Amino acid sequence: MSHNTAIEARRRSAVSRGVAGKSIYVDHAKNAELWDVDGTRFIDFTAGIAVTNTGHCHPKVMAAVAKQAALFTHTCFHVGPSEGYVQLCERLNDIVDTGAPNKSLCLTTGVEAVENAIKIARSATGRPGVIAFGGAFHGRTALGMALTGKAKPYKTSFGPLPGDIYHAPFPNEYLGISVDEALRGLDLILTSDIAPDDVAAFIVEPVQGEGGFVIAPPAFLKALRAIADKHGIVLIMDEVQGGMARTGRMLSGEHSGVKPDLVTLAKGLGGGLPISAVVGRAELVDAPHAGGLGGTYAGNPLAVAAAHAVLDVLKEDDLCARADVIGTRLKEALIKMAGDHREIGDVRGLGAMVAFELVKDGDPSRAAPELCNAIVAEAQKRGLILLSCGTRYNVVRLLPALTIEDGTLDEGISIMCASITAALDAHKSE
Ligand SMILES: Cc1ncc(COP(=O)(O)O)c(C=O)c1O
Q1: Is 266 in the pocket of ligand 1 (CB under 6 A)?
Q2: In 3D, which of 137, 307, 130 has the Cα closest to residue 236?
Q3: Domain of 404?
Q4: Does residue 429 surpass a pLDDT of 80?
Q5: Is residue 255 located within the same domain as residue 277?
Q6: Is 357 helix (H, G, I), strand (E, B) or coil?
Q7: Quick one: 20 and 102 in the same domain?
Q8: Are 167 and 87 part of one and the same domain?
Q9: Pair (47, 173) in one structural domain
Q10: Could you say which of 293, 316, 339 is where a domain stops?
């Protein structure tokens, strides 16, 4: 029995089945490659779900963490604050363009940033309501689940969920949901469910992540901005997955030209160490009373040191530009594959946040989740780690490290294309 298989068996008896996922037990990782406990090498097209945008174990990130570890690892910002935290907020305030002076706070996970953004919006407006969008993913805490626009597997059996949260349709060109139709859905909520002056916030992913890498058309974000401005609603952009250079801009919302009021950051910010942040208009971020925000580990010094190194690397290595190069190469290969295989119904993405959607006979309405699973499984057999996503479980998402070497990228792309062909052939002969 391989070491992997043995650990998998122990996992089944020791770990909650609620924590699902792959069974590649990692021994070590470097940039866009990792090796399991049996010594098998994999090319990683997931970056730990858009976390190691600067690659696994980037030397500058590792050095920053080691340097900080030798000084102190934890004091709690509420007890022994560090200059690094303050400086990180200063840097983030400069990165996010809200059109006004910004303030920030650091937290630990993506969903914690989301929760705090909602707390800030409610505190600033004195209103309870929040409107999120169908297909959205905002995390797994009670509020995160309630905001998430996908019932299974995220919400089912975990109720009751926090109230005053509504879901409007998210536009999806491929599925024929136009911007106008989505906005009509929002209008219906604002007339039938909750009045605009009871709404604290809209929370939107400029590119839906778990929902299937669905890109919000700029016209949609512009319309949200206009409705928010008209009614004093806070516009929160959840950049947890799409932020930190992933889409070719520091923030995915920048593509639209629409300025958010608040932004949530996590994942890629820490390059593998857990840190998140809420950044936004100072008068909003300052609305909660002293003591209302924070947390024991929020802005942990090791993670703060990592985040500083990540910000340095993103800039020094111009990883926004690199994201575009990677994305172009991925899309070129996939568009060619789609020309030969009508099951690849759509290829889409911004920068290095690229996905392809699998359907039966080229029909967008007939999702092919089994084919999606077969491609991911085939790629794994051939040494490439892929992830699926999408409200219909039929989208393969590609999130390689932005530091991936050209040779590794090419190798990963050819494994991906061979896996698609093999999975489709097997599927057709069934
Ligand atoms: C857009 C978005 N928001 C929030 C979250 C939750 O982040 P975390 O899992 O770190 O709590 C995720 C995680 O995938 C995400 O993609």
Answers
A1: yes
A2: 130
A3: 3-57+318-428
A4: no
A5: yes
A6: strand
A7: no
A8: yes
A9: no
A10: 316
What is the dihedral sign for C-alpha 282, 284, 288, 293? Answer: negative
**What separation in Å is there between the alpha carbon of 318 and the centre of ligand 1?**
25
Structural domain total, the chain = 2
pLDDT, residue 285, reads 98
- Are 322 and 312 in the same domain? no
Q: Report the share of the chain in percent with pLDDT over 90.
A: 99
**Distance separating alpha carbons of residues 34 and 344, to the nearest angstrom:** 28
| Residue of minimum CA distance from atom 10 in ligand 1 | 110
**CB 263 less than 6 A from any atom of ligand 1:** no
pLDDT tens-digit map of 170-204: 999 999 999 999 999 999 999 999 999 999 999 99
Convert the pLDDT of each residue in 202-233 to its tens digit.
999 999 999 999 999 999 999 999 999 999 99
Structure tokens at 118: 């909602």
Ligand 1 within 6 A of 137 CB? yes
CATH code assigned at 53: 3.90.1150.10
Q: Single out the residue of 170, 177, 181 nearest to residue 210, CA to CA.
A: 170
- Ligand 1 neighbourhood includes 210 CB (under 6 angstroms): yes
Query: Which band of pLDDT confidence, cut at 50, 70 and 90, is reported for residue 328?
Result: very high
